[in-house]
Amino acid sequence: MPSSLNVVIACGGTGGHLFPGIAVAEEMRRRGHTVTLLISEKKVDAQASSKYGDLDFRTIPAIAKPATFSIKMVPFMAKMWQTIGQCKKILKELNADAVLGMGGFTSLAPVYAAHKLGLKSFVHDSNALPGKANRLTSRWCNAVFLGLEEASSYFPNSKVVITGTPVRSELTKLPSRDDAAAKWKLNPELKTILVMGGSQGAKQLNTVVATTASAMPDVQFLHLTGNRDFDRVNELAAAHPNHHVVSFCDDMPSAYAASDLTICRSGASSLSEISYLEMASILVPYPYAADDHQTKNAEVFADAGAALLRQEADLDSGSLLADLTQILFESNQLAEMAEKSASIAIKDAASQICGAIESA
Ligand SMILES: CC(=O)N[C@H]1[C@@H](OP(=O)(O)OP(=O)(O)OC[C@H]2O[C@@H](n3ccc(=O)[nH]c3=O)[C@H](O)[C@@H]2O)O[C@H](CO)[C@@H](O)[C@@H]1O
């Protein structure tokens, strides 16, 4: 491949695809390559990418495969076919050398288009149980980059490179705890829990956290509810000054820097960030995630002793209160979990991915 590459990174659909894609884009640019990111037209992509005005973004249609094989497959296939055509045009116009898909059916179209045009193509999967789109896409790829070793049995051995999942560069340098606490109007002296309810609906988790916060006045909660549940949780939190509610956080470095422990879904980007930042966590997998892949992700962390795995169906404020009291006040568990969390991280993931693309 030429020494200066035109690389296209398809990373639309969710924060879990977008942020690792941005991290690779930043590293590619640092190495002197030209990068274009393909994102979807969804609001979440627009919201999350708006901070990265110096990167080149283009939109392509968001594509989700119907959950079951039904008549809905017909418009899905038609949209896929049309988007592949659109992607071929974009790749030719950009004079692309290589395409990296970060997962989901939205990135299948650009990777397939690259394959048809004879370009180098790659896919990254960050989950312990890889998605269907990536398993399909991988057959057209030169290499498959994996966030977690547990996923490797789903792909041909010869294509697999364990790279880890990159975190955004802004997370590589956190503000001080005092500055971060000031930003969120928190007391830096108090133990602080970061709760990431998630964009996909976490009503029960959010409610349990609100009740638990009311029973722990000496602990602070910085609670990211997602846009949909903000008004309801904000109302529940109104009577409790230790419960700080935010809908979408566009300053994750200070959210993490202000916190001692995270309660969150076990989406792969959240997990890569937590381990990169060497934090302990309580993981509550999103129960409706495809093939329950979030439980598989959480198991990697729980088995390593880095996290407690709690299924949403079993979660109530009594058990969460007991877990938090034990971790924060009755043991050395917080420090031990943080150490185990650090041991899972692959801190130079973006660099490993760029190096593998350069040398393909
Ligand atoms: C419901 C579902 O199927 N989610 C999947 C989706 O990730 P999904 O995007 O839901 O979740 P992830 O944990 O992977 O990523 C969330 C990202 O959003 C950021 N964040 C969060 C809250 C906020 O207010 N501000 C903010 O910036 C987090 O720091 C993180 O970078 O794709 C991932 C990668 O395939 C999967 O592992 C997840 O299981």
Characterization of this structure:
This protein is an alpha/beta fold and 360 residues long. Helices cover 42% and strands 16% of the residues. It has a seven-stranded parallel sheet with strand order 3-2-1-4-5-6-7, sandwiched between helices. Strands 10-9-8-11-12-13 form a six-stranded parallel sheet, sandwiched between helices. InterPro entries: GlcNAc_MurG (IPR006009), Glyco_trans_28_C (IPR007235), GlycoTrans_28_N (IPR004276). GO terms for molecular function: undecaprenyldiphospho-muramoylpentapeptide beta-N-acetylglucosaminyltransferase activity. Residues 192-353 form the Glycosyl transferase family 28 C-terminal domain. Cell wall formation. Catalyzes the transfer of a GlcNAc subunit on undecaprenyl-pyrophosphoryl-MurNAc-pentapeptide (lipid intermediate I) to form undecaprenyl-pyrophosphoryl-MurNAc-(pentapeptide)GlcNAc (lipid intermediate II).
- Strand count, sense and closure of the main sheet? 7 strands, parallel
Number of strands: 13
| N- and C-termini, Cα separation | 7 Å
Overall geometry: globular
| Structural class category | alpha/beta
Mean pLDDT: 94
Sheet with the most strands: spatial strand order:
3-2-1-4-5-6-7
Bound molecules: uridine-diphosphate-N-acetylglucosamine
Strand content: 15-25%
- Work out the radius of gyration: 20 Å
Given as residue ranges, the uncertain stretches (5+ residues, pLDDT < 50) are none
SSE string: EHEHEHEHEHEEHEHEHEHEHEHEHHH
Q: Count of helices?
A: 14
Secondary structure: helix percent: 40-55%
Family: Belongs to the glycosyltransferase 28 family. MurG subfamily.
GO molecular function: undecaprenyldiphospho-muramoylpentapeptide beta-N-acetylglucosaminyltransferase activity
Domain Glycosyltransferase family 28 N-terminal: 7-145
Subcellular location: Cell membrane
